[in-house]
Amino acid sequence: MTDAPLDAPATLSDIPREPTQDGPAVRLFLVDGSGFIFRAYHALPPLTRKSDGLPIGAISGFCNMLWKLMVDMKAQAEAPTHLAVVFDHSEQTFRNKLYEQYKAHRPPPPEDLIPQFPLMRRATRAFGVPCLELPGYEADDLIAAYACKVRDAGGEVTIISSDKDLMQLVGDRVSMLDTMKNLKIGREQVIEKFGVPPEKVVDVQALCGDSVDNVPGAPGIGVKTAALLINEYGDLDTLLARAGEIKQPKRRDTLIAFADQIRLSRELVRLDCDTPLPEPVDALVVDDPNPEELSAFLEEMEFKSLARRVGAGGAAPAQVPAAAPARPPQAAIDVNAYVCVRDMPTLDAWIVRAKAAGVVAFDTETDALSSANAALCGISLAVAPGEACYIPVGHENESNGGLEFEAPEAIEQLTVDEVVARLKPLLEDPTVLKVAQNAKYDMAVLSRHGVAVAPIEDTMLISYALEAGLHKSHGMDELSKRWLEHEPIKFSSVTGTGKSQKSFKHVPLEPATCYAAEDADVTLRLYELLRPRLAREGLLTVYETLERGMPAVLAQMENEGIKVDTDTLRKLSNDFSVRMGELEIEAHRLAGRPFNLGSPKQIGEVLFQEMGMASGKITATGAASTDASMLEDLAAQGHELPRVLLDWRQLSKLKGTYTDNLVQAIADRTGRVHTSYALASTTTGRLSSSDPNLQNIPIRTEEGRRIRKAFIAEPGHVLISADYSQIELRILAHVGDIPQLKRAFAEGHDIHAATASEMFGVPIEGMPAETRRRAKAINFGIVYGISAFGLANQLSIPQDEAGAYIKTYFERFPGIRAYMDRTKQMARTQGFVTTIFGRKVHIPAVKSKSAAERAFGDRAAINAPIQGAAADVMRRAMIRMPAALREAGLSTRMLLQVHDELVFEATEAEADATIAVVKKIMERAAEPAVSLSVPLVVEARAATNWDDAH
DNA sequence: TAAGTCACG
DNA sequence: GACGTACGTGACTTAT
């Protein structure tokens, strides 16, 4: 923890606030910035920022004190209307011209305080408070000038300081406040300290001087004597004029001898009301901090607990602390309050409101589920909680199957083109933040209408950055129920389900408006609720660098699609059918009866009951397993049928999952296959691909590769596959700090052979293939959270032998053990683990009552930082890729991502240049956030089909 | 809708 | 010390 253990208040938002600038009376708070930071510095232990050791003790205290002040201020019956923090300017001041020695003997500030000075100003601005400073003047001069100005205009001033030099300013409407001691300093307190009222403090100070500031004063005269003299003679000028009357010879002589020095001292301590004002008083009006700026700053400083407190307050209007349960956070969601926009003036009015708000949530409705073919039905906007509209553009009356004689009456709505044209400037306006739930979908749809939505935030990804692993879904319905305690209208309830389900374009405008506008409304509410948590929970950087840029990139990839060779796939499908038929006949012959080869249950009956083969392991439900490894075992025992079943299964899988369906998946619009990537479906940060899944296209078998060959480039183009070599093991070597592995990677050795060599003490040259295979299995096992059982299973060796390997591995690479132990520890104590890029992966299973589930959680915890970091690296590369290609003048398109591989389509002419750019971006993707201690290596190749590009 | 299986990293 | 057992996905088929 880097936070100051200072007492800080709970929240801002629940404290009633006076309207600012209401009436003429200005109530100004002026904070003495230097005073604040010196007190913070001395009050706190020397804290440093965890990530880089930057000293931040003073700035932490400063922030806590400032925040506490802001909260306390608002709690006052007559809350201040104006607030500023005043700083010394580091240059020489006019006092040095008067007296060279002024403040000359002051020791330099402590070394670890120096780097914190500039941060004070940033902190102040981050809290939304004006900073005041002026070259040639001290903070005290500015404080005096503002205090005089406001006081003379009939306002009130409170100076937040305990500096005695400022006490001369105290008066009827000017007081001081020592926030550390919670003391108000008024006229009485000044008299107590100086023995004179505030207006005579300067005279006393001129006499007694100040050793700290090197104000000379009169030698031998202290505060008591000075006050006595001033009270006796009325003021300094009178005293000096009548010095000869003083009875005590020493005092008399001193005052006469040092009269000039005393007058000089008075000039040095006197604060001048005529100091120019760098900002008008009006500029100091109290304002709430910009939550984003403040969050970003606090996160950068790594002030977690303050960020939490701050975020719980003003930044999140929707979040109500437990203290105020009676008041609902926002107006309840009322779907009947939404507006259906069907004319231009109304649309324009909403656009104006969105611009004024600076933030607009939006959602697109389309006539299909997958974005590849979807046409726009309408767009909804939300400009404030509860204030949302729906703009239909593509709704139609449902035809009655052509039974009517006349065409159905057209629906009165704006056209797609005019609405898009009108919304485009808003959606692309850099000063208006757009918010969407699963922005990728909306961006894909809109990009087909020539709209590049930016800047954009995604509530789904915010939830994912915050809580990956805690929930299966980060979909809007779940988020709404989870955070707003509101169940949105179900899509199926407006479209119907099953056979009678209709396209959204056929939904009547009234229910369509309720449904669509509610989505935008909910999205905006979720945004206001979740977004402040990012900074508060230290995940802003993760979100900004690993999540936020992805929707645009993926939308583009999905829209691009990839070409597949229909003929090849059809031929394959036929070929597979024929061979499956042959295998089926053979299987029935061997079984002695027909049975369904696709039914594990029937296979079990045939193999284990009728043919009497020994059943091995059982499935979760207690049935005898017939999976591939089981069938392999039986085949190895000399049985014929299992081999036939294995062959049939392979072909069945390939045909059913790939050949037939890929052809079906070709979109009419483009003639290409468009997958859909899920950004928030895995726990580790990986993507997933579906409809169709293009991340599991076969490659491991010869038959399978024939399918991969059907993924092709357009004529005159090539596909380029670029994949990270051993990225997970490289990350393991880095996080586990394994010198041998790091060296092997640095020198470009075969990592599995090097592992085997290290473990078994055999040279790499002439190493038996089996030895390397075992090391390879162990390396993979480690990444998965190894167990003797799992390794034994994988290698088909006895469990104790596998256990011995693991033991040897840990002895040779003790860093791995340490990594595993600390990772498990972290998971168990915090409930989550993190990647080197800061991504959080929650592992709730580690807290389970079941030992089995806990063990499962342990393994997931070991794997997540490795798999997750690899995913982080890939995301960074992907986000940077489009600009890098563009800047290189290349027209190359990124098409697919398969975890550690990217697939591009380039013209033949641009292939080589593309490979160079792609390799560079991918290999440097970790930088500058993380400096890996192993090189990242990318292998890239171009060919006309995907298989040959490997 | 669950279970079993298997394609991928 | 017992507990099931490599990590992360999606899609298909059968069976309920």
TrEMBL record:
A molecular-function term among this protein's GO annotations: DNA-directed DNA polymerase activity
Location of the 5'-3' exonuclease domain: 26-287
Reaction catalyzed: DNA(n) + a 2'-deoxyribonucleoside 5'-triphosphate = DNA(n+1) + diphosphate
Domain of life: Bacteria
Top-level class of the enzyme under EC nomenclature: transferase
SUPFAM superfamilies: 5' to 3' exonuclease, C-terminal subdomain, DNA/RNA polymerases, PIN domain-like, Ribonuclease H-like
SMART domains xrefs: 35EXOc, 53EXOc, HhH2, POLAc
Keyword Transcription regulation listed: no
Annotated ranges, domain DNA-directed DNA polymerase family A palm: 704-910
3'-5' exonuclease domain segment(s): 338-535
Quaternary structure and partners: Single-chain monomer with multiple functions.
UniProt family annotation: Belongs to the DNA polymerase type-A family.
Function: In addition to polymerase activity, this DNA polymerase exhibits 3'-5' and 5'-3' exonuclease activity.
NCBIfam families the record matches: pola, PRK05755.1
Name this protein carries in UniProt: DNA polymerase I
Species, as recorded: Phenylobacterium koreense
